[in-house]
């Protein structure tokens, strides 16, 4: 490995990237592989998968999860509103490996779905055809099964559910995942099918920027990765270009790194938080916010889970957690189902502690007034742990301009940065989709012979989307189709915040494809090939 | 079974023995698993929370106030404290405080600790430490009932 690069604070680095998750990590890799100088700021620590990741969901939850204060608002934000990782790799360390491309109709949501009350639907400023070459590149990095590696053998959970799916004519099949299911790939080890791998894969079989993009970038010698560094403001020069980023180190001291270009990839909460905190006299409503869209249209996904008590042992914890999927409900058929957009099912299991809490979450992590289970109900569930099969659905959320991120006027974090207020209100379309998701799961389970089905409410959100939507019109969007800010020509955004609509697919692959595309665009600009 | 309950209660530090007895009685009602191997982990969970309460004064106040309310409601309704009434009356007393911050906080931390113990995993059928090498060669892709090599996964799985 090349020695760690150290750039000087006052000498503008080619590109400064804030965040090292799916967006930031892919940009960093692409730039460094092409000889671009990069300083990367990561607010969290760097975990060592072999040393730090254990097969224990709750321990990993406590170890990995961002506990930065977020103040919830709205009628649908739980007391613990989001579930993300603060550390090198970001939430690619906490994911299922599901690597699904967005669907064509989802990228034209406004044109296909029409005008939906209370939803600020819009079309994406790029087509699936334009995005596909970048999907292919991302899939090669991930090692996606069914694309660049053969589809994986699915697990006992899938075997338990499949008879039900078959009876109903549904296609339960292997999920395309970024996991080395068959052998080593791209320097990463083979999956051992140990399960419970959503919170840290110890041998790198599941793709993450922690184990793929960042190490590759470091090997080039062009990356200066600074952990424990939280960006506070992006600073402009007199011409309105980004000139530097001020950030706090863990000890509270601040530094300012000069840069020729800045890429923000802090996620859909911290990216708008940073832009809003970078307000100046010339941008009083926040950086890159002449449209007033920074912080607006926060989306997650419409989710829900069902567990079935089967008459036989299942041991669903064995193997890759979401190794099977059903996409028969992913199409847009509002006349038949009463809502627009669709959802995908994936098979799912949980560790015991996680199941005991999330099967019926109480008010500490869910909605005010919600009630955790205990006593004989709890014991009945847990005594049957080995007999449970699980399905989880992920569907398209409706964008709402009033759902989003603002800065709290008085509450600040340890570095004096205002804490984010996250408002989220459920859309009626979501409620309809969620009801159908649970109902279909019950049908499938009952057809498979389930004795009992338990509906589990949504978990704290990991798929954070929107708040800096992309579009062609600077009056209605924050960034263009490359993630470049309309207002600040050398400022880019590379995370899920640029999604104008949520799609129904897990977002890591799409964030990565967009980031690869953005990095190539940045290099074209640097080469003088584009403005 | 742990027989010397009095010595167990004297092991608590944030709670006095009578408070510890009440606390453990509440936890046993929250987690009424019948398997005798789960008696000890229930006590361990109570002791872990007790240790949190040594320095966590807010938690201690929340728990103590809640325990007193539960105990007093039993005395009002049945003329005896929580630890002296039968299981169904214990459940009734806890149902009455089910929506309080005390009870929701308590069951959250109790479940998080108890169900994250290796012995609990083992008793309920999750092989944990025996399969740290994964299930690639241990039947991850088949149901125990229909596949070969089922015995390895079925031995200790209990079912309520």
UniProtKB/TrEMBL annotation, chain A:
Entry's Gene Ontology molecular function annotations: flavin adenine dinucleotide binding; oxidoreductase activity, acting on CH-OH group of donors
Q: Which residues form the Glucose-methanol-choline oxidoreductase N-terminal domain?
A: 82-302
Q: What is this protein called?
A: GMC family oxidoreductase
User: What is one Pfam family matched by this protein?
Assistant: GMC_oxred_N
Entries under PANTHER family matching the protein: LONG-CHAIN-ALCOHOL OXIDASE
Annotated family: Belongs to the GMC oxidoreductase family.
Q: Superkingdom, according to UniProt?
A: Bacteria
Name the InterPro entries for this protein.
FAD/NAD-bd_sf, GMC_OxRdtase_N, GMC_OxRtase_C
Species per Swiss-Prot/TrEMBL record: Nocardioides agariphilus
Q: What does the UniProt keyword field contain?
A: FAD, Flavoprotein, Oxidoreductase
Pinpoint the Glucose-methanol-choline oxidoreductase C-terminal domain residues: 399-515
UniProtKB/TrEMBL annotation, chain B:
> Which InterPro entries does this entry report, sorted A to Z?
Gluconate_2DH_su3 (IPR027056)
The record's section on Pfam families has:
Gluconate_2-dh3 (PF13618)
Superkingdom: Bacteria
Q: What is this protein called?
A: Gluconate 2-dehydrogenase subunit 3 family protein
What lineage is this protein's organism placed in?
Bacteria, Bacillati, Actinomycetota, Actinomycetes, Propionibacteriales
